[in-house]
Amino acid sequence: MAAPASELTRKDFVSSQDVRWCPGCGDYSILANVQRVMPEFVDKKEDVVFISGIGCSSRFPYYMNTYGFHTIHGRAPSFATGIKASNPDLSVWVVTGDGDGLSIGGNHLLHSIRRNMDMQILLFNNKIYGLTKGQYSPTSNPGTRSKSSPQGSIDYPLDPISFALGAGATFVARTIDVDATHMQQTLRRAHAHKGTAFVEILQNCPVFNDGVWEDVQDRKQRVENSISLVQGEPLVFGTPGNLRGIVMEGGDPKVIDLDDEDDPVSKGVVVHDEHLESTAYAFALATLTRPECPLPVGVFREQRKATYEQMLEQQIEDATSAQGAGDLHALLHSGDTWTV
Amino acid sequence: MAAPASELTRKDFVSSQDVRWCPGCGDYSILANVQRVMPEFVDKKEDVVFISGIGCSSRFPYYMNTYGFHTIHGRAPSFATGIKASNPDLSVWVVTGDGDGLSIGGNHLLHSIRRNMDMQILLFNNKIYGLTKGQYSPTSNPGTRSKSSPQGSIDYPLDPISFALGAGATFVARTIDVDATHMQQTLRRAHAHKGTAFVEILQNCPVFNDGVWEDVQDRKQRVENSISLVQGEPLVFGTPGNLRGIVMEGGDPKVIDLDDEDDPVSKGVVVHDEHLESTAYAFALATLTRPECPLPVGVFREQRKATYEQMLEQQIEDATSAQGAGDLHALLHSGDTWTV
Amino acid sequence: MTSKKVEKRREVSIRFCGDSGDGMQLTGTKFTDETALAGNDLSTFPDFPAEIRAPAGTMAGVSGYQIHFASEQVYTPSDSPDVLVAFNPAAARANIGDLRPGATLIINVDAFNKKAYQRAGYTEDPLPDLRERFHLVEIPLTTLNREALSGLDLNQRAIDRCKNFFALGLLSWLYGRPMKSTERWLESKFKGDVLEANLRTLRAGWAFGETTELFPVSFQVPAAKIESGTYRNITGNQALAWGIVAAGQLMDRQIFFGAYPITPASEVLHEVSRHRNFGVKTFQAEDEIAAVSSSIGASFAGNLAVTVSSGPGIVLKQEALGLAVMVELPLVVINVQRSGPSTGSPTKTEQGDLFLALYGRHSESPMPVLAPSSAGDCFTTVLEAFRIAVKYMTPVMVLSDSYLANSSEPWKIPDVDTLPRAPIQFATADDSGNEGFQPYERDPETLARPWAIPGEAELEHRIGGLTKEPVTGNVVYDPVSHAEMMRLRGEKVDRVSADVPPVEVDGADSGDLLVLGWGSTLGAITAAVDEARKAGQMVSRAHIRHMNPLPSNLDEILGRFKHVLLPELNTGQLSMILRSRFLIDIQSLTKLAGQPFLVSEIRDAIDSILNNS
Amino acid sequence: MTSKKVEKRREVSIRFCGDSGDGMQLTGTKFTDETALAGNDLSTFPDFPAEIRAPAGTMAGVSGYQIHFASEQVYTPSDSPDVLVAFNPAAARANIGDLRPGATLIINVDAFNKKAYQRAGYTEDPLPDLRERFHLVEIPLTTLNREALSGLDLNQRAIDRCKNFFALGLLSWLYGRPMKSTERWLESKFKGDVLEANLRTLRAGWAFGETTELFPVSFQVPAAKIESGTYRNITGNQALAWGIVAAGQLMDRQIFFGAYPITPASEVLHEVSRHRNFGVKTFQAEDEIAAVSSSIGASFAGNLAVTVSSGPGIVLKQEALGLAVMVELPLVVINVQRSGPSTGSPTKTEQGDLFLALYGRHSESPMPVLAPSSAGDCFTTVLEAFRIAVKYMTPVMVLSDSYLANSSEPWKIPDVDTLPRAPIQFATADDSGNEGFQPYERDPETLARPWAIPGEAELEHRIGGLTKEPVTGNVVYDPVSHAEMMRLRGEKVDRVSADVPPVEVDGADSGDLLVLGWGSTLGAITAAVDEARKAGQMVSRAHIRHMNPLPSNLDEILGRFKHVLLPELNTGQLSMILRSRFLIDIQSLTKLAGQPFLVSEIRDAIDSILNNS
Ligand SMILES: Cc1ncc(C[n+]2csc(CCOP(=O)(O)OP(=O)(O)O)c2C)c(N)n1
Ligand SMILES: Cc1ncc(C[n+]2csc(CCOP(=O)(O)OP(=O)(O)O)c2C)c(N)n1
Ligand code: SF4
Ligand code: SF4
Ligand SMILES: [Mg+2]
Ligand SMILES: [Mg+2]
């Protein structure tokens, strides 16, 4: 674990408000983990802002003893954009849900990701609208029976990771509500990234979509059904006696069986590299679908590019050195004037 | 060229309205090509509906002598969704621009693509807001100097093809305003596809963004700067003496030089396959960026999946056979009633 | 059956309250069904806190359900319940303020331990004080329920979750409610041990009533004399949903319903989704803008289109509604109003969106607006909205609210055969004259333009949101065409007046005071006026359902009264419109607390006007 | 210089019109600059057709620019130009209706061939008729320009494109305008042959005037007596942009400007973008919702935030504006109103969005609203909007319109040192009391809550759109808190009255008729009242700039006049508000044609009231 950056402790980030999620909701553990890692990131909690939209997940800011803004449905990334542009020194965190972020808010998420401001976006994906009591969402499995789809949903689901990569994200990761260690690692990576860090957090909604992530939440099933992406490590998963690896065939990822004693790399198993120039590889990983393939968790991609706010500040500097600091009198008298 | 499906001719699709684009606008040739191929697609022009948002490009429906709806900015795919769901027999075409479709309308485009209704979406990409007189758009090249970005734009551009693939598109293609033959082929393919066919059309705006596509519009430069995707053909481009091909390295596409007498396939050059199960390959093609790599034109991907309207009709059928045809009296008397 | 004395009561109101997890809404609904089947008139008011489950035992988590039933007509859930059933101290504390001294307060005394009452915010044991102020009945509900269910193969939590049915059994006994409907419902919903448990505790509750000395008498509320017919309970949202389904049947056309979930409107979507066998197409869009846009698209293609939402969602739809006004396509927009600006209090009620309906689009963008006044009226109003939309080729907005949405009342089921059938007339090739088809040629009477749908030969045409020439619909920029189309759109909506029946006055035709209302305030206003009359005051009453255009006799009626009182759950929106239109000093009674009017609030306003004049 | 006779004129109005491609806007602007430098008062009205270039030579493609200048005060661009310069038959046909019989009509006679006049919709040669009705001056503009530029290395198209400068030269001679500013501008804009061509034809136009027999005299319009000071021409959009930049300077805080392009508001974004050296951050968002949301975010973070749009875009912002009302953060929202519902006529003018500003959000969501009344006033109004926003912690809407946006007037440049400086006071750790920081504690006078920005220690707090408790801002659902916060939000906006100066009456303090106005109608109303007075009528005039809250002396003023006439470019929105508020029979004069009022329209209304009373 990284050394704390500050004197702050987890408790400093706990607000006085009663937490209003249902018992057993995956949001609790996400909250706990975020509160746990925050002291590593900042040494003044007043520099932290949590921004959310509307949804169960979007209640998050109320429980963080930092600055917080619970905005309107789907628009949190836009509010965050204004906040970060106004004060680039702040540590800006967006919390959203699969409905808030990908249904009504899909466009803002897309464009925020594209602009690459230095902020973290945590998308809690429970594949359902929790707050409005259980309608299917854009990430719901096909055929999901919900209040608004009594015969099963007929929308093809959106994959948040593919979406983010398609938008040109510079940092994309996935983690799971119940895996505290992995989540904390992922949050650290997201925070360390200079640019927009998009993190999908798989979250259980025990009330309206219980068990939808069971195959990767359950410790036993997880080893078979997920693959952990680790920089420089070959893409191998499963348990001894049943090891498998990921190879690429002309751009398409495939699963191959491995013997325990195999050297995966010599078998063609891909070595994970977050930093490839092109997004193609990360996207290929995102297309892995269960049950045939394991679900990747960890960091899909990290790429360093100038952030929007850096370039904005730069333009202000450039303009100032080219035109001189703004002079209101001169502005008002620019061009043709006449004196009476 | 496919045989006409009807007695109709190009002229039947020309409306009485004066065309109001600037002289030299790329929209003219798109209009002409669409009018030219329509007789191949339908035998009754009343079955055709063109729907657009707002923008120069979105004036399109006025010039087509079919049913047409010039709606509001960014929402054309949603209007089209309602039209197609209401009457699946119609041939539904959406015309949008890079601003209309990818800026304000990004979310509707995303979700329409995801739902896979059987319609064609033509996105005219001139990398600028034409109608509002020249502001940069989400597809504008970095550093574009425009009315709203006098120091150059600082947004990273969105690639329409990657976006569509990230949304799970079942048909994705790109063509160029000035290449009539290629455009007509592409329109035929788009029309033949059962599902949402997304077509990016590179379009010149001589007034506000002249020459932005010159390297692929100009016939001479085009051979060096673009690669034509043809099913079953190796990805080779350039001219004899300067042939090059695309290979995949662990999911990442690269350009290699070829000798004229080389067999490209044995050199590892990829053979184009639109129908691969996973989107990874198509996405890899979309990441090809000039000047290092050529810009692919043609069909990136085609995949057959049930359309939204088919599934919707199916659910109505299923419900009807399970519950019987709707009986209003029975509905009103369902559950507990009492008689006074 | 019971050996205890039975007393008659004319009316009773009961409020069940407890934690969100205690099943209060269910208990209330089942008691309501029993009551309806017992032949009483009734009115209910479910009042739940927020959208997600609050921490157990806190004030924030309290959920309530009130029912008022009688052997005569019932207009409201009643200002103050006769009986409060409180499952925990938080529920007691949150609701006690509405109770009259001496009213009956039935509590689960097992839940009144120190930890619990402190969690509720009591600093000391509230029981001594409650005993003093109310007729406190202390029942060890948890214990009794556990005893009743001992031996069943269920864990403690599952057992405790049944205790609301014990209470229901007890209250059913107390007011002689037949439990058949509840038993039937349990049988349809559960099986095995869970069914057994619920049935057993329900009956144990009844038996407890019969034997306990806590209740020396039980009560009987004779059936009300109501119009003959077949009845059912219905909530406003259910009635809206059925109205939508019915419109498709009566107009012989498929329904397209574009929606995005939002409290308190989502149930309309849920309910309609269940009836695909009527050929209705529900479409859950990615947001409200897509919901309304797809609906307008569907209307263009010839479906009967409807979109349903609440405050924030309606705001988002306004740009597209402006387009619907411009292209003159039929569309029904239902706004189940909720409380407060921005996210506000999503489960609470208000009538704050009248201005939004009329003026919430840029420029001048007129649209007919209707407001139902009771749960059952929601059904009728939706049908009327569709009729107006199609006849005049216009979007129509319906203003329901959270109170109507959730509260229920007995509804006389209409005879389907007598509901007006109005198959739709689309334009045909015959409508295409020498000059070709003219999409903005108007019906001389209604000013409606033709509805020409894709697929129909010779009617190809283009529409859009730009200013257009009259008749041809071609895009133009000249001031004359612009002005003429602005005028025509306005006049068309004015002509809907032809379909607006005159307002009826209940009571004397003229006099000192008219209490005017619209929408969901009908019950409270009627009850207040009723009381006032019983107290000898001369008060008349009228209720508006057509908010735009207004009934044409309104001017004349208002002129006949010395005072006009207009209660609204907003800052006086209709009042402002009428004051401006008629230059009459209408007195506005406003309330903005997320709650419906109390009868007493309106009575007080009546008193104060009559006493000062 | 010239040997011809020079006559004096008190005032002249000229309209240049031609194809969109003919450069009429440029010609008009340059003539305007020359006129301003000549010391006249002036008013202009650019009127262009649509957003994209229409087919050449058609009515749809006609673009016009009118200027009215005088040696006395000028209030409007004038109802009817004295001189119409028409570059082609379509331009003549589209504008001729506004011309008085006998007025001067200067045409490019080269463009009046058969093909051209038919394309314009004339069935026969219009010249004979025009000669009869007007003082027709037939100039072979195309030919003369070609002659002037022969020998230059430019193609025909490039040469023909210069002919507007020939016309400008000619008109400059005719009215004795100094061409220096135009020459300077050309030199800054072009170089090489293009510069040479424009300069040459400009001077050729002047020389042609001097020599041709078509114009026996030239005219002189002496400088106006205007307040001393330094002046410049300014359009409303430019003034808005500079007001925004100035606000940042005067309040010593960075500006964040979130916007999405839309006609006619985009130029404000363009202009502000050019001044990043003032530390302004312009942000072109993906849509209007993101534009306003990012602006509110910026305000939360302590920037001075502004968002600018027009009708459809403002509608889209309303949901977020409701949140701004709820979280009580300062924000300036500028609506450059355009004409018609839906997409309507984007380049045309209207005052249709007053209701939208006041009532376009769900529930009750009060917001101060200001309306500038002239191009220059846009600057002042923006500064005032920022002051109110910050002082009262509230969003404020400014209603400009397309007419103000594009028309220009001489503007006396304010002395920067006398502009009020008001550095912002943010909350500090000292504002955090024993109970911790209370985000909804209010200033007792203004009711403003503290502005506490991220980065400031000990003030961590959470805000949002849910109903909240007074003082703490904690999320609650109880009716009492809900009602209290609804009341407080309303009262806070009412208290802005303290900063609203009383309305001033121009003319007698009481009498038969007061003409009341708001926004961009000031010029037309002033001119009409002026004319009426000159004709001996007793008419007073008052203009409202604070639309909400209204000036507190309004009631009293209205009461002193027998009649009140209120001209508005809508169906009578302010009129409705005032009628309702004061129960006074205000007479509404409305116009919805996408055009500003003519002076004569208001005069007629004045006459009709005074003659009938
Ligand atoms: C404009 C608007 N439309 C609809 C809603 C209703 N609404 C609130 S949250 C929500 C969905 C939330 O889903 P998600 O983001 O997945 O959050 P979860 O509750 O599952 O954590 C909806 C539809 C709203 N508040 N505002
Ligand atoms: C709600 C709304 N916002 C903004 C506008 C203004 N607007 C019209 S078209 C347009 C951009 C068009 O760009 P694009 O789609 O690329 O079309 P092009 O003109 O380049 O073909 C904008 C911003 C509008 N009409 N409506
Ligand atoms: S509804 Fe689901 S997501 Fe929401 S708080 Fe409850 S368990 Fe969590
Ligand atoms: S502005 Fe550009 S895109 Fe628009 S019509 Fe003109 S050339 Fe075409
Ligand atoms: Mg969710
Ligand atoms: Mg474009």
**Which protein chains make the most extensive interface, counting residues with beta carbons within 8 Å of the other chain's beta carbons?**
C-D, 68 and 68 residues
Strand count of chain C:
23
Strand-pairing-aware structural class of chain C:
alpha/beta
- Please report the number of helical segments of chain C: 21
Rounded radius of gyration of chain C (Å): 27 Å
The CATH superfamily title of the largest domain in chain C: Pyruvate-ferredoxin oxidoreductase, PFOR, domain III
CATH homologous superfamily grouping of the domain at 11-212 in chain A: Thiamin diphosphate (ThDP)-binding fold, Pyr/PP domains
Sheet with most strands of chain C: 7 strands, mixed
Hetero groups in this structure are: thiamine diphosphate, iron/sulfur cluster, magnesium ion
Quaternary structure of the protein: heterotetramer
Estimate what percentage of residues of chain C fall within beta strands.
15-25%
In the CATH classification, which architecture of the domain at 11-212 in chain A applies? Answer: 3-Layer(aba) Sandwich
Shape of chain C: globular
- Measured between the Cα atoms of the first and last residue of chain A, the distance is 73 Å
The helical percent of chain A reads 25-40%
